[in-house]
Amino acid sequence: MTNVLIVYASQFGNTEKMAKAMEQTLLESSEIKCQLKKAETVTETDFINADAIILGSPVKMGSIDWQLKKMIDTVMGSLWVANKLVGKVGGTFASGGGFGKGGAGAEITFTSLANVLMEMGIIYVPLPKNTQGYKFGGIQWGAYGVSANEDMQPQTLMENQLEVCRIHAQNIARVAKTINGQNLFQCELEN
Fold first, then answer.
1. Domain range annotation of the chain
2. CB crowding 107-141: b at 16 or more within 10 Å, else e
3. How far apart are CA 15 and CA 134, in angstroms?
4. Which of 37-46, 91-100, 126-135 has the highest mean pLDDT?
């Protein structure tokens, strides 16, 4: 059984829709256990028990949501110190909008989330550009939902954007299943 943890923050509901689409598709498999948590409710134990960790955030002023950042600092920090997440698998997703269709700050949000996962020793799963629907809901860092137009007017996510979320979650779970239980890194022994 592959355990997948999806942790997200959502202000207007689009990031939550993406998270729920990922959860729904993963729960269709009898080989996957999926846990969906808002950033303010996740615990260290949730992270430790997961084989795969997926972080999602709306783009907020060119960066990640404050609730997710607080969770990273308060919950994940001690896991980093203790090397508890080394060798797990992870990926990211985000929603945002505005100027330039992708919205200002989308890539900064993704690279910030990816940096957190890699700092933890987590193997990062990208979103290949040949993913079905990529041009509608993806960039190389992960699934991306455009939630506002160029005039900053809110818009609901399109189904093809949610489908990219589902595919990305399946890819992450597949990689986690493939390497689950393997000691992939030669690391210094703890004292």
1. 2-179
2. bebbebbbebbeebbbbbbbbeeebebbebbbbeb
3. 17
4. 37-46
Q: CB under 8 Å to 86, separation ≥6 — which residues?
A: 120, 121, 122, 185, 187
> Other CB atoms closer than 10 Å to residue 73's CB: what's the count?
10
Nearest Cα neighbor of 57 from 114, 4, 128 is: 114
pLDDT at 129 over 80: yes
Mapping DSSP to helix (H, G, I), strand (E, B) and coil, where does residue 119 land?
helix
In this predicted model, what pLDDT tens digit does every residue of 63-80 receive, in sequence order?
899 999 999 999 999 999
CA distance 15 to 96: 9
Residue with tokens 């809110």: 154
Q: What is the CATH number of domain 2-179?
A: 3.40.50.360
* pTM of the model as a whole: 0.94
